[in-house]
Amino acid sequence: xxxxxxxxxxxxxxxxxxxxxxxxxxxxxxxxxxxxxVETAGTISIVTVTGQTRIIAVADFSILPIGVRRxxxxxxSATGLHALVIS
Length: 87
Prior knowledge:
This protein is mainly beta. 0% of the residues lie in helices and 44% in strands. The protein has one domain (17-85).
């Protein structure tokens, strides 16, 4: 049984996929993420869905529930990044 079948996707619901992220100072993510999953601690420099640049310190195995359009290479030391998307 597929619980996502015949259901409309919602921002309040779970992501439908987790895509690996390669930080880049120029290119946006292919899909705006509804959150990020981080495997290894460090800092993340992001551009939010509203266009603001933020640098956030994160712990191992963190989930950041924030809309992200880009993860910058400059200022990002955390690794194992995954964009949580609804597609």
